[in-house]
Amino acid sequence: MKTYRSWQAVINHNLIHLDAFGPGVPPIGPDDVSLHFHPIQWASGFQTFYPYYVRGARNVLLDDEFFSPDALLDSIDAERVTGVFIPGPLLAPALDAVEARGGVAHRLRRMVVFFATPGLLDRTTRLLGPVWAHGFGSTEQGAITTRLLPHEAEERRERIKSVGRPGSPFLEMAVVDEEGKRLGAGQVGEIVARSAMSLGEYWAMPERTAQAFFPGDWFRPYDIGYLDEDGFLYYLGRAADRITTAHGTVHPHLVEEAILGHESVFLCGVVGFGEPGSEEVVAGVQLKPGVEPSERLAGEIVRETARLPEHERPVRVFFVGDMPTVLSGAKVQRQALRERLRAQKEPGKPG
Q1: Span 112-128, mean pLDDT?
Q2: How many domains does one find in the chain?
Q3: Are 10 and 133 within one domain?
Q4: Which residues have C-beta within 8 Å of that of residue 276, sequence separation ≥ 6?
Q5: β-bridge pairing 33-36 and 83-87
Q6: 59/62 Cα distance (integer angstroms)
Q7: E-assigned strand segments in the chain
Q8: Which CATH number does the domain housing residue 252 bear?
Q9: Of 170, 188, 212, which residue sits at a domain end?
Q10: Higher pLDDT, 130 or 64
């Protein structure tokens, strides 16, 4: 449940975020066009619709029942689109379509991306230019929390692995321990944010509302990460998704990021098998159209994770014909994937 004050804060925060998108990008104006092509109730409705609307720009909504990379590119061209929100899992096939066309002419100035990998961001710059902002946020806040811009990654190459810094002066962000005390640079803990955007409560769930805040109005999205010495946030994953092996904790997000580097992988999800404290890391992989699953390919995918500590590498790779996701492929449903993989008899075989 959002208050009027929190909703106004969402709009103001996103206006500043989009107006300060980077060097050479003018503020949003009546000549801008914002495209919405996936479920608007998830992110683009919160984050991009209102800033464009209040500035007199045009918002274009496509049918979100099915995702077509070619339809997306055609709409960007035909509607003279200057801004779009796109989840990383859907950006990858869109860039495949760009390459298949030998490149595209476009007017994009602002592309807000969530759940991207460094390789995907580099590829976006190469094919479309430095038009992206890699964001992190939560539905409860209704806005981007932090964002990384291309010029910030150019200043220090390691920042490409981060999700940047707060998107406006209206938001404070920190990493804290289990008691809510701030941690120093490089220390892994719980990500918290404080702003008027966080004001609200869960409908008829007072206990859940109480658990969602540390003292001082610090909101807890229950995400894990750490800050560097310059205040850039490095996201490690959801607290509830952590896998605990006999040799340490594994954050599935980092393993998935490595697996997505393989040219044959369309989507992937990493989960744990077994009891907490002795879980095994396993991966479910959906291949790109036309790619045949095989044990050899499963081995190649595991080798993509060789840069990770040994206990973080998947012991098994299962191929799935259709990854269980929500929001048109934006997020993998881990529990549904875990149950599907447990029911699948052989790793390395389609299921």
Answers
A1: 96
A2: 3
A3: yes
A4: 244
A5: parallel
A6: 10
A7: 33-36, 58-61, 83-87, 110-114, 132-138, 143-148, 165-166, 172-176, 189-194, 213-214, 218-227, 233-238, 243-245, 248-250, 265-273, 280-287, 316-319, 325-326, 331-332
A8: 3.30.300.30
A9: 170
A10: 130
Residue with tokens 């406006």: 168
- Residue 350 token pair: 């389609």
Cα 212 from Cα 208, distance rounded (Å): 6
CA–CA distance, 23 with 30 (Å, rounded to integer): 20
Interhelix angle for 69-78 vs 88-100, to 10°? 80
| Number of neighbouring beta carbons within 10 Å of residue 67 | 19
Please state, in angstroms and rounded to a whole number, the distance separating the CA atoms of residues 159 and 176. 21
Tokens matching residue 116: 């991207």
Provide the mean pLDDT of the chain.
Answer: 93
User: What is the full DSSP assignment across 248-261?
Assistant: EEE-HHHHHHHHTT
C-alpha 300: how far from its chain's center? Answer: 25
Residues in CB range of 331: below 8 A, 6 or more apart: 87, 115, 325
pLDDT at residue number 341: 93
Domain span including residue 281: 242-343
- Residue of 82, 14, 19 lying closest to 50 (CA atoms): 14
- The span from the CA of 115 to the CA of 238, in Å, is 12
pLDDT digits (tens, 9 = 90+) for 240-273: 899 999 999 999 999 999 999 999 999 999 999 9
Contact 278, 243 (CB under 8 A): no
Q: How confident is the model at residue 350 (pLDDT cuts 50, 70, 90)?
A: low
